[in-house]
Amino acid sequence: MPDAVFFGAAILALPLFGSFGLLVAALQGGALAEVLGESSRRLEAAYATARQQAQERERREQELYDKQRQLAGLIHLSQQLSSIRQPDQLLAMVARIAKDEMNSAISLVALVHGRELRVVCSHGLSQLSVEAFRPRVGAGPLGGVVVSGKGIRLGEADGEAWRQSLEGVRERVRTLLAVPIQSPHEKLPVGILAVGNLLVGEAYESEHEDFLGLLGTDAAIALHNLSLYSELERSYYEIIQALAQAIEAKDPYTSGHVARVRTYATRLAKALGLPQEEIELISKAAILHDVGKISVPDKVLMKPGTLTEEEFEVMKSHVENALHILKDIRSLPPRVFEMVLHHHERYDGGGYPHGLKGEEIPLGAQIIGLADTFDAMTSDRPYRKGYSAEEALARMEEAMGTQFNPRLLKAFFGLFEFRTRRPLTLKLREGQEDR
Ligand SMILES: [Fe+2]
User: Fold this and answer.
1) CA–centroid distance, residue 101 to ligand 1 (Å)
2) Tens of pLDDT, residues 178-234
3) How far apart are CA 277 and CA 18, in angstroms?
4) Contacts of range 105-109, beta carbons closer than 8 Å, 24 or more positions apart
5) Which of 45, 113, 204, 234 could form a disulfide with 177 if both were Cys (CB 3.0 to 4.6 A apart)?
6) What's the 331 CA to ligand 1 centre distance in angstroms?
7) Distance (Å, rounded) from C-alpha 288 to C-alpha 339?
8) Does domain 84-226 have CATH number 3.30.390.30?
């Protein structure tokens, strides 16, 4: 019986009682080569194939993951775009998504400004670079993007074109991809969206360009919509201001009332430290606060003297009439409606239309109500002369805690300065220009 038996070319069998010396001798005699020979090569080939397949699978999975992430980025962007009202916020978001989703160290948005491109937001570039980087429209690869409407991919190997593209940039940039920001409605791009220094991989590829191109188009459409939106907003203001003027025109004694209420209300809102967004809503509501009076008959609206109970009921309806007039203006935020509806509520709950009390009354409505009362008290009427500012404030002080919120009234007093001791003259402090 032999000490060792070979089965085919792949298996070496040794008796269990064989010695270690016997094994060594067998291996030295070429048994290993025989065992591993062809079989080993097949194994190696199979292993190499499996490794290649695993790598390919990994690459595809990564690709799929990247695409999913990019898609999620686009979906997230589309969701956000509808709520963003400021172009700079929108472009900042686009630049951030481009950088993150394209695995890049640098991203920038540059818009056409006259004959050159100016960076409006960026990541990974110093302020000095941002200021110095001003590609001319139509000149060089980047300036060419806003003329051709086509994206470009460049790298250090592109020599002169590369050098030209990055004039003014102090950071080392190895790779660059730029696409136009252009919506289907526009003949020419309004700017470029670019990313640089790919973090994973050697150079940007066509898939990168496709994704960035989608992002550039999305950004352009959103910018276009924003400009339509602001045009719509402008028209809307013109309409409501015309309505407010139409009401004032009915009664010469109320001339300038809306503008003054807006001034007092916005200054009070600023003095209370309210955010700018809130101040703008209060400003809108102040312009609109009495728009419902357009449906109050003149004999009630301009009646000299005290109104009868019935007439007062008609007059009270102006706050709800306003809602009917304004309901079709979709861009009007619901909080403006609330402020208009509740500007005649009283702090103690004795006002109208809902008898809200204290903090139940929207703050903007309280502010407008206070400004409205002050202006009404200090304006002349056919049947009485208006109070002086100090008289009006003194009377309002008596209504502190009943008609008015004490905190607001105190802040309102702070808007005035006393020039002399007696008689007191009050002058609204100089403030920043009201918006
Ligand atoms: Fe009113």
Assistant:
1) 53
2) 999 998 888 899 999 999 998 887 889 888 899 899 899 988 988 888 888 778 777
3) 91
4) 105/196, 105/197, 105/199, 106/171, 106/173, 106/194, 106/195, 106/196, 106/197, 107/193, 107/194, 107/195, 107/196, 108/193, 108/194, 109/181, 109/191, 109/192, 109/193, 109/219
5) 204
6) 22
7) 9
8) no
pLDDT surpassing 50 at residue 9: no
Which three-class secondary structure string do you get for 290-339? Answer: CHHHHHCCHHHHCCCCCCCHHHHHHHHCHHHHHHHHHCCCCCCCHHHHHH
- pTM beyond cutoff 0.85: no
Quote the ligand 1 centre to 235 CA distance (angstroms): 24
Distance 320 CA to ligand 1 centre (A): 10
Ligand 1 center–CA 357 separation, angstroms: 18
Residue found by looking up tokens 């791009």 in the block: 189
Q: How far is the CA of 189 from the centre of ligand 1 (A)?
A: 49
Fold of 251-428: Hypothetical protein af1432 (1.10.3210)
